[in-house]
Amino acid sequence: MRYLxxxxxxxxxAPDENLHVAxxxxxxxxxxxxxxxxxxxxxxxxxxxxxxxxEITVTDGPFxxxxxxxVGFALVEVRSREEAIELTRRFRRIVGDGESxxxxxxxx
Length: 108
Hints:
Layout: E1 2-7, H1 17-32, E2 36-41, E3 47-52, E4 55-60, E5 72-77, H2 81-95, E6 100-105
Antiparallel strand pairs: 1-5, 1-6, 2-5, 3-4
Protein name: YciI family protein
Family: Belongs to the YciI family.
Domain YCII-related: 1-91
């Protein structure tokens, strides 16, 4: 089962060297186990594209609710939803206060 683990921005202090080291170890462990498929950060603004009938509207960000935006992600392959939750718990313990969302990815 594949899950997309997403992180939202937080008001915590800038990452220090200990955080970088801990995250490096976590990423190495998941990569070596074949769990981590992709990871990355996302630009803060983005572009919103909406459609209504034949009308397509393109709006540049940032948007009013930036605190709701996703700032980073990891795509993982695990055996169960519970395993995805546990990986996200481990991630939150490393990075500290904040919010993450996980969603199962369907398809090939």
